[in-house]
Design goal:
The chain is an all-alpha fold. The chain has one domain. The protein contains 21 helices and two strands. Strands 1-2 form a two-stranded antiparallel sheet. Helix 2 packs parallel to helix 4 (57-82) and helix 11 (245-265) runs parallel beside helix 13 (302-325). The termini are far apart.
Length: 507
């Protein structure tokens, strides 16, 4: 009951004309920044930090809440419409979302994303309000071997699911892990694959990799098809706003499953929403593969609903971990931690006592921000979808300009522009030869974590490799992975046999 009373006081604080204005402005600015390739919710919060110096702490953090969730939805808008996610957290939803857009269902994909953001954000916020201290205790159960098992699970599961061939998926994963090795080794201090360039000592920025593989790679692929039948084909857009009853029935379980997958990952410091969004995508694809009329690969609505809900649920509980423990589990949470320190506040258990009015106003603004985003973005889904009616040469030229501006804005390095071009050519070659892009990104994002935790586990155990499977959590993850991959291989073998039998019968 204390939580309900405190939350009610938080709503009274937020529901004033000025504070509601900050929620609206934050949601609008977050969405606008998220749409730009290479930028995202973390960058939006960072850019707005200087702007909030003149605001009181409550007004500033209320606006940050709107920016946080608005940025996540903005990331998805550019990913769905232009195959250019504003941040890596929107990559998984982009896989099917962009295919829906190319099939003339852009508005439905955006509506699915908006509702997923609402459901994932609201449910995770409810859990944060009532169970933040209990949820935060889950993080203490994870040691080096558990983090390594989690990374390996994500590596193999995504490589097996997104590619028709496991070999091609693992080859793409190897490319991502190779890119992740660039930079200074965190444990030994030795530089690796930097060619003596000081700019590469910190590795290649994930923004450069994401924009290069997804945005520039797509632009080059489209340019390479110029003059072909595929190039002259117009992308239709029906512009229908509301989901049909069938689409809603397909999306609802995916929204709930995605939320349940994303909630615990907000407490576990694995770097953000990439892992749960890809796991949600993999879950939906595996479930759909059991049905003969699966739309995966052609624009499955579940492939948008699950990852989008997971991403927003992770963002919600990540804020709970930040408030309850002072533990930033994502890049956005780390920027929010800097914002707290800017106002002389230290997140953690004592924050609820020393700044209870601020904490509960921030939690209340999560709920209000979700409603504002739904009202703000759902009616505009058909309007965003109109972007696809622009001539391709204008649309993709604009993507290239904004992508390059986004990359340069994050680092102000000319070398990053050269790298994004090189990685764009790599992305084009991967599309040309049928290699999936998602395993590359997973390898880049989780490769450093897996390497660090592996070496830490081996150092603690003095070289005893059995420690990697000794814990119940790690052993369970490996067991589920083996069963899942085995089942997938059996399923694909059966499908190939059925296709061969049908070909033989037709002959």
């Amino acid at each position: 009951m204390d939580s309900l009373t405190n939350l009610g006081d938080g709503f009274l604080t937020v529901l004033t004309p000025m504070n509601m204005l900050w929620v609206f402005v934050g949601a609008l600015l977050g969405t606008a920044v998220g749409v730009l390739p290479g930028l995202g919710s973390a960058m939006a919060v960072a850019l707005l930090l200087p702007v909030t110096f003149s605001l009181d702490p409550i007004g500033a953090f209320i606006m940050f809440a709107g920016v946080l969730f608005g940025g996540l939805f903005g990331d998805s808008i550019s990913g769905i419409l232009m195959n250019t996610p504003g941040n890596s957290t929107a990559i998984a939803g982009t896989i099917e979302g962009h295919k829906m857009a190319k099939d003339g269902r852009a508005a439905q994909a955006l509506a699915t994303s908006a509702i997923a953001a609402f459901i994932g954000g609201i449910l995770s916020s409810v859990l944060v309000v009532f169970f933040a201290p209990s949820l935060a205790e889950l993080a203490t159960l994870f040691g080096p071997e558990e983090y390594l098992a989690l990374a390996v699970f994500a590596f193999v599961a995504i490589s097996a699911v997104v590619a028709e061939s496991l070999i091609r998926g693992l080859a793409a994963l190897a490319i991502g892990l190779a890119i992740a090795l660039v930079g200074v080794d965190g444990m030994s201090g030795a530089s690796r694959f930097t060619a003596g360039q000081p700019e590469l000592f910190d590795g290649i920025n994930i923004v450069v990799i994401t924009v290069g593989l997804l945005a520039l790679g797509e632009v080059i692929a489209v340019a390479a098809r110029r003059g072909t039948k595929e190039d002259t084909k117009l992308i239709p857009s029906s512009g229908r706003l509301w989901l049909s009853r069938k689409e809603f029935r397909l999306a609802l379980p995916a929204w709930l499953r995605g939320t349940s997958i994303g909630v615990p990952f907000g407490i576990i410091p694995v770097g953000g929403s990439e892992v749960p969004t890809f796991l949600a995508y993999g879950t939906e694809r595996r479930l759909a593969s059991r049905k003969p009329d699966s739309m995966f690969g052609k624009g499955a609505i579940q492939g948008v609903a699950g990852p989008e809900a997971a991403g927003n649920a992770t963002a919600g509980t990540a804020m709970g971990a930040l408030l309850a423990l002072g533990l930033p589990t994502s890049a956005t949470a780390a920027v929010m931690l800097a914002a707290f320190r800017q106002y002389g506040l230290q997140p953690g258990p004592l924050l609820f006592e020393r700044a209870s009015e601020l904490v509960w106003a921030l939690l209340a603004s999560f709920f209000i921000g979700m409603v504002v985003l739904l009202i703000l973005n759902l009616p505009f889904a058909p309007l965003w979808a109109k972007l696809l009616k622009l001539p391709k040469h204008y649309l993709y030229a604009g993507i290239t300009v904004f992508a390059m501006l986004g990359v340069y804005a994050t680092s102000s390095k000319i070398l990053d522009l050269v790298l994004v071009l090189a990685i764009g050519l790599l992305g084009f070659a991967m599309r040309r030869y049928g290699l999936p892009v998602a395993p590359v990104l997973i390898g880049v994002i989780l490769g450093p974590l897996a390497e660090t935790e592996f070496r830490r586990a081996m150092a603690v155990s003095e070289g005893d490799a059995s420690v990697l499977v000794s814990s119940p959590i790690a052993g369970s993850l490996y067991g589920v992975l083996i069963l899942g991959v085995g089942g997938l291989l059996i399923q694909r073998a059966r499908a190939r046999r059925r296709e061969a039998a049908q070909v033989a019968a037709a002959a």
